[in-house]
Amino acid sequence: MKLDNLGNFEEFNNPKRFVEPTEFIATPKLILKGYDMYTENPSEIETIVQMENFLKQEIEKGKIDPKIGIGFVILSKDMLNVVRWDNKYPIVAVNSLYEFPEENRDIMNARPLIVDDFGAYCIWELGIVNHEKEVWKEYLNSKRTEEDKIKYLHNFIRGEL
């Protein structure tokens, strides 16, 4: 097996990431657990508020399908990754990606990306996704009562990824 033409790329800087929970993004159709993923400093409050406003607007306009009505969102320096648990197959995470300019972090003008062209998750987001997978499995294997939903919704990952 020859590997000399595989796995090659230009020099790449890949600093550690950290994650902190944000407020819930809640609408009558969908509640998202919020995560702020960053390299050095957490996002400013204004950026978090802008993210919440953007997502509520997209949900209200029907641009984000709520699926089962529960999920999570990951904010990074220039992207939003909106993940909802599927209503037909609740073991499937359905995600939508949005990109916005890193320079001014203008989330209100974020544009959708096609997951097939861009990819579903970066390696750092997978740390969050793995945590969410585990706590969602706990919920699926529970009696799925109101208390179980609340337990899922309040179980966050934080710190170094």
Characterize the overall form: globular
Strand content: 15-25%
Low-confidence stretches: none
User: Number of DSSP strands?
Assistant: 8
Percent helix range: 25-40%
Description of the structure:
The protein has 161 residues and is of the alpha+beta class. The protein has one domain (18-160). Helices cover 27% and strands 24% of the residues. The chain contains 4 helices and 8 strands, in the order βββαββββαααβ. Strands 1, 2, 3, 4, 5, 6, 7 and 8 form an 8-stranded mixed β-sheet that branches. β4 (70-75) and β5 (79-85) form a beta hairpin. The longest helix has 16 residues, at 45-60. It is globular and about 55 Å long.
Question: Strands, helices and their partners?
Answer:
Elements: E1 18-21, E2 25-26, E3 31-38, H1 45-60, E4 70-75, E5 79-85, E6 93-99, E7 111-113, H2 115-118, H3 125-140, H4 146-153, E8 159-160
Parallel strand pairs: 3-4
Antiparallel strand pairs: 1-3, 1-8, 2-3, 4-5, 5-6, 6-7
In short:
This protein is of the alpha+beta class and 161 residues long. The chain has helices at residues 45-60, 115-118, 125-140, 146-153, and strands at 18-21, 25-26, 31-38, 70-75, 79-85, 93-99, 111-113, 159-160. It has one domain (18-160).
Keywords:
single chain, alpha+beta, eight-stranded mixed β-sheet, 24% strand, globular
